[in-house]
Amino acid sequence: MMRKKRRSSVDKGEGATTTTKAKKSRTTGRKAKEPAPEETNESVFGVFLREAGVTLKQGGTSNEIAVDQVVFQKRIQKQLQKSPRYPGIVQEFTAGLESHIEDPERFRNCLFPCVPRLSDGDASNGSSFQESLLRMLLGIEMLQTVIINTLLEKLPEFMFDGAGDGGLSIPHTIINQFKWLDRVVDSKELAAKLMELVSVAPVEVQRDIISSLPEILEDSQHNDIARELNSLLQENTQLTVPILDALSSLNLSSSLLTEVRGAVMVTLAAVQLEDLPVVVKFILHSVSASDAYEVVCDLRKKLELEQCVLPAVLQASQSRIKSKGPAASASTPSAGSSQDSVMLTLDGIKSAVRFQKMISEAWLKAIESVDGEEDHKVVDLLVLFILHSTNANQSRRGAERVLKGKVRTGLIQEALLQRTFRDYAQVMRGYFPSILALAQSLLRSPDPCVVPFGGHMYRHSFTAFDSYCQQEVVGSLVTHVCSGVGGEVDMALELLLCLVTEKPSEMALYAVFVKGILDYMDSLTPQQIRRLFHLLSSLAFGQQQQGSHIQDDMHIVVRKQLSSTVPKYKRIGIIGAVRIVGSMGAIRLKGKESQNGSLPKETLRQVTALLELVKSSSESSPEAAALYYDELANLVLSSSLDPQVQQTIGKSVIDDFQAEFVVDLGPEISGSFPFTPRVMYDLEVQGSIVINLLPLLAKDLQTKGEQQSQTTKAHKRVSPLCLSPFFRLLRLCEHKLHQGDLDEIDGLLGCPLILTDMDVIEKLESLSKADRELFCSLLFHAINWFREVINAFCEQKETEMKMKVMTRLQNITYLQSLLQRALAETPGYVPPVANFDGESPDGVTLSTAAPGNKAKKDGTGKKRKAPGKNSSESSSQLEEMTEADKTQQPEKEIRQGVSLVSYRQFFRELDMEVLDVLQCGLLSRSLLDSELHTKVREEVLLGPAELVFLLEDMHRKLEFSLTAAPAKRPPFFKGRTDKSVGFSHLQQRSSKDIASYCVQLLPALCSHLENCHNYFQTLLSENNGVVDGPATDVQEHHLMSSGYQLLLQVLNTTFSWSGFSQPGQRGLLKKALGVLAERLKEESADLTLGQLVKHGFEYLVNFRSTMPSLSTALCLSQLLSTVSEKGGNPAAYREQTASLAKRFLSQDWVTASGVRERGNKFNEALHTLLRIYLEHVDDVLKAVEEITVVGIPELINASKDESSASWPTLNRHTFLVFYKVLMAELEKAIRKIPAGKVSDNTEAQSEKLLTWTLAVKNLHVLVDLVKVFDSRPVLNVCLKYGRLFLESFLKLGMPLLDNSFKRHMEDVQGLLKSFQLSTRQLHHMCGYSKIQQDTSLTNHVPALKKSLELFVYRVKAMLSLNNCQEAFRIGNLKNRNLKGEEILSQQSQESDEEEEEEEQRSPLPQDQSEDEAPGTDSEGGKTVNREEDVDQDDITDDSD
Fold it and tell me: Could you tell me which of 515, 428, 514 has the C-alpha nearest to residue 463?
């Protein structure tokens, strides 16, 4: 019995191994008319078998065979055929078989393999494995049909028996007998009977039959059976897997396969989760190259993996249900099994992608084609990971490209990634190497839009995966930090800090890895070092102290750096020590380490000792001391310190400050100084103290000189460098201790300074270099003191305080105007440091050139993308104003100062809160006399200079914080000029905070905008509409126009913030737009976003009439464009934006001094404005035609300095700007013309032809202009865009001509003739470029020549397509210069260029020659001399 089971299991899965034998094609199975007697039948069956070599056994013993099965089959066949009773004997034989197998035990014996009879003499003939008796008989053709019928009739008897002993299923064994037969006599009949059985059998038997069909049936039956299986698939989803397995193995026609796949696709949504892998595998393995994309798109749409995996909450509840009873677990699939099914499904996709290139391409294309954020699914991300991990057919690069593109456009967002990690952590784990590689690639990307997504991938990987993956993630992030690339380092440190905050106990395991970064601090910026020490000290010294094992290392590093004499390392030590103090001295939660939540004594002792160590280490260097004060101030501001620590820091600050920097105000100042000391800028009525600035500065310079001569290290120096940082620390400690009240120190706001008489500026050139430098340093220190004072008191609410702050602002703007003049007289001077966390300023290149050479800031803000120090630039505006005015005041020209733009890093950073001053208008207070009568009313107004100063600072801050960061990325290999210098306080705040703050300021900004508008409106009405009338104050006009422009730029930067597109910021955007809308309409609370945009747009358009300069007009256009995009329907505002831009382009721009605007800045603004006009206009081609046909001829006919009448901005200086934009926009416009299709109707074709005709006409006019304006830049533009136009014509225009040639013969002919005028001119330009040997021009020649040749062959192909080959002929083309004159050096030679001529088929040859539209193989020139002469006539005399 044991042996029987084993053999049956062998038989179960194996097919026959018989050698193929020649079959006789004899048809058998004819029924005998009368059944033979039973005993005869039995004897015939038994006798024949015995004679053929098979012994039938009873009971559980297998039948024995003495010969090879082929011999046995031959013998049986021979016996039957030779029998005198043939063919009746066949019937007798089968009847004997039937009666033999009626006994179930004997039937089983016949189904099991026969055993070779080893004892027999010829047993050696028997092979080790023999088929079952029934299978050997099925191989005899005359018996086959009868035996098949017998077996199929027997099968239902065992259908419901289930598996027998040892898991043996009789129905399964019966079906196995039919597999792999050498020949099936009646395949069709067998198929029909099997399908009949399927319709009545239980599911298990159905599955067996269906799975076996491919091995039973012949190829001819495959298509028919597939149709039946297909219909069965629709009815019964339980049979999905076997049917699809069978269909995969059948040899089907492509049309049927498509039909079946379509049917399967329809049922995809209803498929059981465990069947899903098979379904997906079938769909993907049945695609052809032509329909791969379509199928994959459909599959992607229907594959709802989100519904396959239960959310975590439900998984938990289901696991509880399962633990309660076995019944529940049987009915509900576990989360694990669903994840397994998803994993198998993805494996199916993976194998398809790996072995079929078209499928990997189709998946990429399908994911790429999704254009809505909500349309993206989890499967998209998973497939991208699959494509990246397999790298089949270089799909890794494709997956990376698609992912970056989707993230960049915001279509794949963090929410989708989070969902994928949350629900498919087990599945994702298999793709961890790819996830890590993609995250690395995204984090290293130069595109800042994709960097955060790489960060999310790291964060989720750390959270979702096991410890091995966590270690890899931390290792990878540490590698990023050590790379030294700015954005990459910032993001990696931010992520590490985030992980330390969220998962401190897990991160503690990898603290040693993170500590390794301490060896690579040389390449980190101070801000990055702060962050690094923050995360390390949080790990080592935080409340839980999970990473306490690195505490000693941290102390060692900090002490080592503090004791260094190299300023750079001392800086690192100070930053690190202060951060450690922050972590050790942070407020503790109650009940953790001590009963009342206060700091343990030992910790307090360590904190105090560390502070003392830093203080003593930095005393000898003013820069180090100043940095220490700044870092401590930041800590006080940003951290929640324990009250004891706060007190330790604050107790000595006020006393030290008074002792070092404040002296009593006396009648005279003792000591000898280079300048006469004078107490200045006193705002206090009865002040008694003064800031001791000039004496300190003089003493500090003297001490420096002594140190250099003695080379000995001095003890503590009181340096004016520490004045501003120390004051900042003082006021923040006061603010913290007294909850924002600064009464204790408010005397310092109005307190005077010991400076010198500012008349020194008039005789500066007569002073020594040292004195001039001392004077400059004095001004820098005074300005920085005032900036820090404004930082401190800008939030005070009392009117008196506000007035003093405003006065200090005026002091700054005045001192800056003096400083500009002083710097102009002091070349080579390096100012005192004001930001102590950056590199030393020795290497800074400072601009001290005279204003004529100074590259000035034009107020357009374009140069401000490199944020520097928050200095005022009002002085730079003044400098510009004076330069513009120098024609009127030539004698004062030498007095003008340099721009302070390059000195920004030497000014203290202004806090964001200072911008609150913008909300102040006119401030006034009454001064009382001794008898308490109102004596005089004092008023302070935010003047134009102060407004410009604040707006410039605000604009720089917004450019740094809110603009997308490409501008913030330093170019490769550029010197390490850290653009974040002067923004260290700003970097502590998120862009969302800054945007919210700007929205709060919007009402004030709008008020200032309206004031500027009113100022210019009044000015125009006073001067009767003339800008440069006698009533114009040039200086004030310049400041007001700078302020106007800055206001528009600030608004534009605010509204351009990419964060507004995030779902959570919609309310903030509505609030911002509501401010604009309320200026027109009282109630804006219940308006929709679209309505708010509409009202905001209307409000801003009203400013158009008072634009003082083209750059201001450009800012307004850009702001309108930005605002119009926020409502979701920018098209509605296109026409208004275009007409406004046209209005500005049609305006004559004159400065306040009466000179027409010109120069690089003007050209840049004009270029952008013209592009805005052409991008927003309805019909670009008509707009281009208007300028080329009307504006440019007016310019050609005008005198030298005149401009075009209809386009006043178009003159000879700006022609190149117009030409470049017109060519670029023309080329862009034709790329948008749809390509011609065969299916287009006549009307559509003629419309497209008309568009192309207009485009070609515009090109001809523009190309022809090089005969008049033949400067190199113009030729360069013409060659570049001429080639691009030609390429687009070949790609999009020629298919249209192919299809419309017969219907619109005249139009096509005209179009090509017109186009050849341009191509010939381009050819002449190629020749001219070679003669000139100008590389900038000849670089364009090879590609252009190639396109011109392609054009010729393409026209020939079009003629052939339309059976007009005879209209094509070749001629020689002469090389000519721009004027059309023949190039003499080549007269003697025949040109190598061949010229083709194409033309429509015509009945008369002479008509052909007249209507030719010729071209060359490298250009579209014409060979007919008559036509060339016409071309030459087009050249005007103005070309000279």
Answer: 428
Q: Do residues 1434 and 1264 make contact, with C-beta atoms less than 8 angstroms apart? A: yes
Average pLDDT over the chain reads 78
1383 burial via Cβ count (<10 Å: 0-12, 13-18, 19+): middle
Rounded Cα gap, residues 1355 and 1336, in angstroms: 30
Amino acid at 3: R
Copy the structure tokens of residue 912: 């964001």
Lowest mean pLDDT among 319-328, 511-520, 1152-1161: 319-328
Give me the helices (H) in 1034-1088, please.
Answer: 1034-1055, 1066-1078
**pTM value > 0.70:** yes
Look at 107 and 1410; give whichever has higher pLDDT.
107
Tens digits of per-residue pLDDT, 203-236?
Answer: 888 888 888 888 888 888 888 888 888 778 777 7
Q: Which of 578, 572, 558, 561 is nearest to 634 (CA)?
A: 578
What per-residue confidence (pLDDT) applies to 1304?
81
Between CA 45 and CA 773 the distance in angstroms is 127
* Beta-carbon count within 10 A of 403 CB: 25
Whose structure tokens read 């954020």?
Answer: 373
**Alpha carbons 429 and 1137: distance in angstroms, whole number:** 52
Q: Are 812 and 786 in contact (CB under 8 A)?
A: yes
How far is CA 344 from each of CA 330, 340, 784, 1309, rounded to the nearest angstrom? 21, 6, 67, 61
> Do residues 631 and 526 make contact, with C-beta atoms less than 8 angstroms apart?
no
> Which pLDDT band holds residue 812 (cuts at 50, 70, 90)?
very high
Alpha-carbon span 925 to 800, nearest angstrom: 7
Whether 5 has a pLDDT exceeding 60, the answer reads: no
- Please give the DSSP secondary-structure letter assigned to residue 1386: G
- From CA 1177, how far away is CA 1138, in angstroms rounded? 5
Is the preceding omega at residue 752 within 30 degrees of 0, hence cis?
A: no
Across 696-705, 890-899, 1414-1423, the highest mean pLDDT is recorded for 696-705
Tokens standing for residue 734: 């006061």
Residue 64 phi/psi, 5-degree rounding, is -110, 150
Q: Would the pLDDT of 519 be above 60?
A: yes
Specify the pLDDT at position 860.
33
The rounded distance, in Å, linking the Cα atoms of 373 and 384 is 16
Average confidence (pLDDT) over 428-435: 91
**For the purposes of burial, counting CB atoms within 10 Å of the CB of 251, is it exposed (0-12), middle (13-18) or buried (19 or more)?**
exposed
Question: What is d(CA 625, CA 618) in angstroms, rounded to the nearest whole number?
Answer: 5
As a whole number, mean pLDDT of residues 702-718 equals: 62
According to the 3-state scheme, what is the secondary structure of 83-149? CCCCCHHHHHHHHHHHHHCCCHHHHHHHHCECEECCCCCCHHHCCCCCCEHHHHHHCCHHHHHHHHH
Q: Residue 938's beta-bridge partner residues?
A: 925
CB-based contacts of 599, cutoff 8 Å, min separation 6: 585, 588, 607, 642, 644, 645
**Dist. CA 1322–CA 1421, nearest whole Å:** 9
Per-residue pLDDT, 858: 37
Residue with tokens 């994709």: 450
**Token reading at 761:** 């500026």
Tell me, what amino acid is at 548?
Answer: S
Using alpha carbons, select from 1031, 1008, 1009, 1007 the residue that is nearest to residue 1020: 1031
Strand partners for 753: 680, 691
Is 783 a residue whose pLDDT tops 90? yes
Residue in 34, 56, 58, 57 with CA at minimum distance from that of residue 45: 56
Terminal CA-to-CA distance of the chain, rounded, Å?
A: 114
Distance CA 509, CA 1341 (A): 63
How many CB atoms sit inside 10 A of residue 748's CB?
22
More reliable by pLDDT, 448 or 937: 448
Side chain identity, residue 1021 = S
Q: Cα separation of 924 and 803, whole Å?
A: 8
